[in-house]
Task: inverse folding
């Protein structure tokens, strides 16, 4: 096991989650690379210093360009608003770093494409923060589908609903600035679109209806002045997958009362699956053709039989948490850097997801079905 | 309390359910009309005689035209396939009968319109079998919405999924014959569209995607010869309500493992509701702005505080069943006949529902948004 | 099918439930006897007349002794407080009537024994109102256990908790009068003890802890004068079954927030079951030794494969309600009267249940294990 | 923040869990002590070396006596079978170390008492691994009870059921050796007894029924020779709390199909709570006296309002996992070492729990109620 230097840009929700995962991974996974938190960058001095001290980074900087060029780092982790992902990622790639970037990867598929092309040209590894699909039960779901245990898939019904933007008092921010791309369709929609692709493969076409519920937001917390919101609060997509089946997908960040309603129901000719991140250690499975009178959905609980759950805990039913999913993501990334088979999602997959998001936005404007180009 | 004669056409699933309800209602509800099962009509002699004997009808006939003209009947209940509803209903109306008709009311909105016009011209009462919305908890939901307890409604997500057509061995029948209108979109979609309208009012426009999963079906049970299916197995609707909000609706009769997944999630600026017919005695309610750290969805259990639950059982939590919902429907119908305020859904409402179904079918063919005319 | 005259004593919660069931049964079940509601008895004139009119009895009386002797009746249904069950039942038996009695059958096992002996001597059929075990899913559970599908049973954990006595404002009544026997242990405990026996057979010994939570109650609704309560509000039983396994059972009528928490978990060497009346159409089943990584509790939904569900509804998942269970009870009773195999619980079984209740009360007083004599 | 040396004895399930927690804690919590994994001890060389390498210990040893005396360590963590806890803890205390010991603390209350006395005499801090009560939602539950939000508590119903000993093929081991004290009553019972005490305070008396289901076990994995088992597989306790209320508690390690059924229902005069570790991020809460028709159990989801959830994740609903609870335990321990208010459970509390276990075992033998001495 050799050390590998990590730098993280951003110290918010995701900055911390990345730091936790890089700290934890080498204790839990038999990785050949042991991450060392070398440097953190944040232009907010208090946040930066707190992160430096708390999370155990060796150094800190206000200037992310310093970080991406630092020779002691092999991995650059980007956890900033997505409007700046492209610039940071391209700089990191140019410096030969492997790049771990939060989702959505960029405000547009064009940006994502540029990032992907740069990474592939430079042959660095990339990882995008679609942590939920790192859940061992979703890997099980994907494998069951691939193995034909559900027969031919006939439909998908997915959602990612939360309520962090439900209050009209939530101020205007980068989240609702159109320079960052879409609203809920990008922030949450990318998760459920990514999950749909993870399970069922490419989406071929989309018909979307996006709407803005909270029309204006305060320019700052508590401000009486309000600014018009141009991005969506709710996105409703109808999709056709390349494999033939159809589905509906909703992204909603004003879903009052929901904190982590990311899930799906998925029907096949031989069985069905249902999942919600609200109960991330449970997968519901129905197998057609069971014994008469004894049929019904079965609640599969995560356990050591679902790799890599057993690395976290040898006993079934003890449950993984959110941060554990991020740790699995990091383990997969390190493995890819060390030469293993990349498990993704990498920049190419993130670009594919972004194309669906972009197409959904355009479909809603044009009020019609559009193919994913 | 005076007796009122009832005739039922059809003795299948719904024929029995109607008979049970007409038998039970006067014991449970303080109705002023006591239904008497005077006559049953079915062209299958065995079924007819079994129903006659078992369900306690006074007389039986093979000829429904005899039934609709019988002077001893004031109510005619139509539980046959929807392709014949129009003819039967018009004859019953012409004979001055009040008409109770199963859903969907007719193969097309045009048929429904003719039936509605005839009924209104003749001033008979009509009732259509959308029994699920008779659930006291759904009346509570509708009343909460109307009272503004959920604030402005921002979105609806509804589904009616079952799996009775999932097997490719299920033979060709009137259910999949295009003369009856749509497939799942009509049979199940009408329930969830009706429920959406019951809760939120008119649907203004729709964009639908219908598909046929089981392309051919045996011409008869066990037959090797197969016939091409032209109606939908799955319908995915995106809708805009007249009140402004949007939603997604799915109707699916090939949803492997589902037997009664009729439900919705409904979000408002002040609260949210979630319901599934799989647990028909429970309504989930989230109220925004609760005490810090103690927020969450609340499971309201049906009880005597939710009229007319208390007429069935004075103790909360003891639970209504499917047939009880049908009994409430009949009680509402009798009340309307006796001069009370009609609670619906009547033929006019059924026509409105049918327009949404028809428009969805057309939208799917034309691949575009259509207004409900 | 011949008519059979029924008289019901009492018009409260259970009086109504019985009347609904006797009205409904011949429409739903292929019974050879068609119940006719001939007479109702209640000493409250308003209640009596309302029941007469609403429930469709032919006649009414203030004097139950008139009812039990009426030659037009073959069945007497007793739904009064249990302190008077014995007198009424003995009179009805003496008059040669088949007796349907609510639970608990009597204030003591001695009373129950006398009733049982009289009934058996007279060879009349008896039925006691343990309606919950009429649930088709509980019959399934019992049959699975009997067939060895769960292996050797290793433990039972049962509860019946409601909260109708939780408020200290609930007045003193027959429910808490010691002349009626126990408190919660009798009213609710008899249900869960009966269910335990239905599933697993006789209870051999018991160690109980009974306590009174609400020490005094108003002598009448709203009265300031209060009367000391001598019966239990909560009973906690540890039991050993004759088959060898043990269990815990709770009866609790001050369980704030619970309206119908009647249920159990039951473990065997080859599988397990879990059930709650709160979701009476679901039975959870775990089968040991399933495929690796796909194990878990399965939710069996009631359907036509679980007789007699299909008589109520041909489609699975549509759900039975509380009153339907009572209808099944009545169907079983009629079948026994017509010469079929009695399905119980009859007075003998009710006596067996009552012995467990009595022994539990004595065990709690003596603070020790006692065998069921 | 200063470094503090940690040594861990044992590298199994709990050894790893401790190591993960000590690694993670200083990144997540604002602790003033930063744990450094200095040494691991295990007499199995492969396990020891794997732990050394994987978990990042600086040194390893086969001899735990070396570890406890090592001057570089201030904390000794004991994760070995409980039969050896006493010897190790006393040695560590004698060397002036703070001791973190897995549960149950010892085979008997006498041993626990000796350990507690030694620790208190030496004024070292102690922590026992009752990690489940570190759940922020259980702290909320305890605080709600203490604040009177549930009124007077009237009853408790607790369980800890798993199935890791259900198979008769599970070989004889320290778990079932009577030198380690009880069986399920000690291993699982100590968790649910500890949880009951955490929420409701001391248990005053107990009446228990213990039984051995699997009478013999193979002497080694796969061996045909079997050895008689003398400890319990299931323990059923009826208890009275010092505060006045009663309860039932079950510990069961042969509960087929259960992997983490640790939970309770708890009733008060003003409200109720229900919890299961199977869904550790949810607490069900019922508040008496809510608005008519809108009452019901509410599902509180863990979020940043429930300290220290927010240190792990700023967004509600994202969920903690099992290892996170262990991290909270370690944070509490470090805080106590640094001079903060000990949050426990310390050796004194573990002794109190052990007294309940010992008394339960004796009660079962003597078939009678016993006070906790």
Result:
């Amino acid at each position: 096991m050799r050390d590998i230097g990590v730098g993280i840009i951003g110290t918010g929700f995701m900055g911390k989650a990345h730091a936790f995962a890089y700290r934890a991974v080498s204790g839990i996974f038999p990785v050949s690379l042991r991450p060392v938190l070398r440097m953190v960058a944040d232009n907010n001095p208090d946040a930066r210093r707190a992160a430096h001290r708390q999370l155990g980074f060796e150094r800190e900087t206000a200037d992310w360009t310093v970080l991406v060029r630092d020779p002691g780092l092999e991995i650059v982790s980007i956890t900033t608003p997505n409007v700046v992902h492209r610039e940071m990622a391209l700089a990191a790639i140019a410096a030969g770093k492997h790049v771990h970037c939060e989702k959505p990867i960029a405000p547009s598929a064009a940006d994502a494409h540029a990032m992907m092309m740069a990474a592939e040209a430079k042959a660095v590894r990339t990882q995008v923060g679609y942590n939920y699909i790192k859940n061992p039960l979703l890997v099980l779901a994907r494998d069951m589908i691939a193995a034909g245990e559900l027969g031919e898939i006939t439909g998908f019904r997915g959602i990612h609903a939360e309520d962090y933007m439900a209050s009209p008092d939530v101020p205007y921010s980068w989240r609702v600035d159109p320079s960052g791309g879409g609203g809920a369709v990008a922030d949450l929609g990318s998760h459920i679109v990514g999950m749909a692709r993870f399970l069922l493969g490419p989406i071929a076409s989309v018909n979307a209806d996006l709407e803005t519920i909270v029309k204006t937001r305060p320019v700052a917390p508590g401000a009486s002045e309000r600014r018009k919101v141009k991005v969506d609060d709710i996105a409703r997509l109808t999709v056709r997958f390349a494999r033939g089946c159809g589905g509906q997908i909703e992204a909603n960040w004003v879903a009052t009362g929901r904190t982590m309603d990311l899930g799906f129901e998925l029907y096949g000719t031989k069985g069905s699956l249902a999942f919600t991140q609200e109960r991330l250690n449970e997968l519901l499975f129905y197998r057609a053709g069971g014994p008469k009178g004894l049929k019904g959905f079965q609640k599969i609980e995560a356990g050591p039989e679902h790799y890599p759950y057993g690395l976290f805990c040898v006993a079934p039913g003890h449950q993984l948490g959110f941060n554990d999913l991020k740790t699995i993501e990091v383990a997969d990334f390190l493995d890819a850097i060390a030469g293993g088979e990349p498990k993704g999602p990498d920049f190419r997959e993130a670009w594919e997801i972004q194309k669906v998001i972009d197409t959904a936005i355009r479909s809603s404007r044009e009020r019609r079905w559009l193919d994913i180009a």
Summary: Residues 347-366 of chain D form the longest helix (20 residues).
